[in-house]
Amino acid sequence: MAHKYLLACVLALAGCDQLPHKPVVPEEDLPAPVYPLRQANGSIYQGSLGSQPLFEDRRPRRVGDTLTIQLEEQVSASKNSSSNASRAGSMGLKFATTSARASQVGSFGMDASTTHDFIGAGGSQANNSFTGTISVTVMQVMPNGHLRVRGDKQIAINQGTEFIRFSGLVNPRSITGENTVSSTQVSQARIEYVGDGYINEAQRMGWLHRILLNVSPF
Question: 0.70 cut: is pTM over it?
Answer without folding.
Answer: no
